[in-house]
Structure formats: structure tokens, C-alpha cells
Amino acid sequence: MPKVLCVLLLAFVTAANAGPAGSAPRDELDKFLNDRGLLSHLQSVQHQVTDRASELVVHAMGFLGVPYRRGGDSAETGFDCSGFVRAIYEQTVGQLLPRRANEQAAATEKIDKSDLQPGDLVFFNTMRRAFSHVGIYVGDGKFIHSPKPGAQVRVEDIGVAYWKRRFDGARRVLQDAEGVPQPH
Questions:
Q1: Which residues pair with 155 in a beta bridge?
Q2: Alpha helices in 18-142, H assignment, sequence order
Q3: Alpha carbon 9 to chain centroid, angstroms
Q4: Is 41 assigned a catalytic role?
Q5: Which position among 41, 59, 81, 184 bears the catalytic label?
Q6: Closest C-alpha to 101, from 90, 112, 115, 85
Q7: For residue 134, what are the β-bridge partners?
Q8: Which of 51, 74, 106, 133 sits CB 3.0–4.6 Å from 126 for a disulfide?
């Protein structure tokens, strides 16, 4: 099934599930999807997306306290922001992202801030240039990142004045059915 159709059907099923139990439109949709073998496929895709995001966030949280190191890309030596994001994606879901924050922004799909989901990337202008800092959204308006020299991997709130002023945008890492990142 084409990816776009799958995503649209998943969104439709999710919206239909929010309706009152036993409603006629919901029953007809379930019958339609079930007759074509799509209901179980869509539920599986929904679980995979949720599981992947949860796995990314849980794995990232395991690195809280690892020191910042410019150019760093491992827990043993320390992380810079993009090295941290790259390591988390590679270790958790096998996706190799570009090395620099601005390259990660260019290689991922732009999304609206209101559409952020755990596992999405958030970008900031911290060095007087766009997309100079990156972190991983963990939900509830918070993100995890490796902030600066002398600091450690930590969770912060996107809504505090410092990050709010510097927010450059949100991005989603796309993948195909085999989990391989798709070029943007």
C-alpha cells in the first residue's frame, strides 16, 4: 500500500476511534478496513510508530548526565548536540543521520510545532545561525539534548524564554517500511 494512503487511513482510523462507541460510521469504517485486511495492518503500523518513539526517548534518557564534548559522538567521550541525536537514532532504530545539526534539519521533514511527537527533532539558533542546535522531543513540551561545554545531557522545556526565542523549527525523521531513512 502506498505510504501516503497508509498514513491517511491511519489518521482516519484514529479520528474514527475517538467517536462514540457503536456509532454507525465507525462500524462501517471498521468493516471496510477489515474486509480488505487493512485494519490489522494499520493497527500494527500505529503500534510500530508508538513503540519506535518510546524506544528513542527511553534510550536517550539513558544518557542523562553524559558530558558535552565538541565533536563528541559517544557516551565514552561525550556528545555535542548533533552527535547525541545521531547516536540515539543509530543505536535505537538503525538510522544514520547526517553529522551536523543543519544537515540533520535538511535531511528531515519539516513539521509544525503543534504536531511534535516524542522522537521528533527540535532545532534552535544558538550561534547566530539557523539550525545550530538540535535535540530530541520527549513530549510534554520538553526535549533532551547535549547543550554546551561544561554541561551534560539533560531535559529542558521548550517554553522557557531562552529556548522559545531561539526555536528554529521541528522536523520528523522519515523511514520506509524497512526502517531506512528517506531523503527529504
A1: 144
A2: 24-35, 38-61, 81-93, 101-106
A3: 21
A4: no
A5: 81
A6: 85
A7: 123
A8: 133
Does the annotation count 6 as an active-site position?
Answer: no
Catalytic one of 6, 47, 133, 184: 133
* 178 exposure class (CB count in 10 Å sphere: 0-12, 13-18, 19+): exposed
CA distance 152 to 144: 10
Q: Which of 6, 47, 145, 184 is catalytic?
A: 145
Contacts for 130 with CB less than 8 Å, ≥ 6 apart = 102, 105, 123, 168
Our answer to whether residue 47 is catalytic in this structure is no
Low-confidence ranges of the chain (pLDDT < 50): 1-23, 41-42, 44-49, 177-184
pLDDT for the residue numbered 50: 57
Query: What pLDDT score does 85 carry?
Result: 98
Instruction: Quickly count: other Cβ atoms within 10 Å of residue 15's Cβ.
Output: 11
Phi, psi values for residue 70, rounded to 5°: -55, 130
Per the DSSP assignment, residues forming a β-bridge with 144 are 136, 155
Q: How far apart are CA 117 and CA 138, in angstroms?
A: 7
Q: State the cell numbers at 109.
A: 521533514
